Amino acid sequence: MHTKEEKMEAFGRLLDVLDELREKCPWDRKQTNESLRPNTIEEVYELCDALMKNDRDDICKELGDVLLHICFYAKIGSESGQFDIADVCRKLTDKLIFRHPHVYHPSQIGAKHPKPLPYGEDCSDDVADGMQKASTAQQVIENWEQIKLKEKDGNKSVLAGVPDALPALIKAYRVQDKARNVGFDWEDKHDVWAKVREELGELETELRRGDKERSMEEFGDFLFSVINAGRLYHLNPDTALETTNRKFIRRFNYIEEHSIKIGRPLKDMTLGEMDKLWNEAKAAEREME
Q: How far apart are CA 140 and CA 134, in angstroms?
């Protein structure tokens, strides 16, 4: 791996190239926060795709694409005199120090070379009042929610930190997780299944009645309860669903490829024939495991 000096040199080289492109490339010169935003979303999804595939080369490449966008936004900010990449790094570093009173004393905020507390020693300042000793990852997370409420520009409420624009599936998981961090959660995770069955029963009732509006509401409640169950068992719903999406696509592609080989369109195949091919694809996957 590279030394810190080599890493700083590589980052500086990136900033130098970005400065040149911003000045001399018509496309780069034309970009704004608004024009870059859709591309940024796409790049983040491409990174997530590489992470799901655990493709190391692709992860490295996609991380670079996301980093480019971060630096680009900072470059645009510097042109209007609002902030630059140094401000971005300093704000992030100070936030990390502030949110880790079990590692850094608050006096280290703003320090050029922040020094951590002696190992095992917690800060006793006001920022840590009412918090538990952070000896586990879960305790750190629970303390974070209290710290965020104390930050100058921090969250004004527990759920305020969940972005409105998050996809609904991820948002449900995040609001449940944040509520848990302040103690609003099931005492016994096994009890959640009664809630899941209750919500499923209410959904089935509304579907039988044919009430579309109430069915939609109950369907949402049912999904929310299933996501909650997954959270309690440490199963990320977005990752789980994406894994199933990919599995379905692989197996359906197997059926489609077979139909092409025999020269028979999918719409002309019976459900039984397709189901047989589905099971073949499933069996082939198991043999490869």
A: 5
Tokens of 99: 């949110």
Comparing C-alpha atoms, which of 112, 119, 53 is closest to residue 86? 112
Cα 226 to the center of its chain, rounded Å: 19
Amino acid at site 145: E
Give the Å distances, CA to CA, from 76 to 1, 12, 91, 98, 247.
Answer: 32, 17, 17, 27, 41
Question: CB-based contacts of 28: which residues, under 8 Å, 6+ apart?
Answer: 18, 21, 22
Query: Whats the size of the chain, residue-wise?
Result: 289
Q: Classify residue 104 by its DSSP letter.
A: B
Give the closest residue to 97 by CA, choosing from 125, 74, 130, 67: 125
Say if CB 199 and CB 227 are below 8 A apart: no
**Cα–Cα distance list, 24 to 10, 19, 20, 29, 77 (Å):** 21, 9, 6, 7, 18
What pTM does this model have?
A: 0.70
Q: What is the pLDDT of residues 208-261, one digit of tens each?
A: 999 999 999 999 999 999 999 999 999 999 999 999 999 999 999 999 999 999
